[in-house]
Write a structure and sequence with these properties.
Oligomer: single chain
Structural class: alpha/beta
Helix content: 10-25%
Strand order of the largest sheet: 1-2-4-3
Strand content: 15-25%
Largest sheet: 4 strands, mixed
Number of strands: 4
């Protein structure tokens, strides 16, 4: 399979990850990907990035090395009613 998009990418603002957003984008470019979505953990998880990261991720450029960067967060479903 030749995927051109990855909609679930964490960066090193999550404690279990070692790559920066820029490093993720550079690697994605090297392997021919066109789009990645930054989806660090949401506020309900223990290893959630500090709240300022969740707010400031919007300053990341829309493109890095020709790769489109979508900015989001991994959703937390905390109960039947959301």
């Amino acid at each position: 399979m030749d995927y051109k998009i990855d909609l679930h990418v964490h960066s090193n603002t999550n404690p279990h990850v070692f790559s920066t957003i820029k490093e993720n984008a550079e690697y994605a470019s090297e392997i021919g990907m066109k789009v990645i979505a930054i989806t660090n953990h949401g506020p309900a998880l223990e290893d959630t990035p500090h709240w300022w990261h969740l707010l400031n991720v919007r300053i990341v450029p829309d493109y890095i090395n020709g790769v489109r960067i979508l900015k989001g967060v991994e959703a937390n479903i905390v109960g039947e009613n959301g």
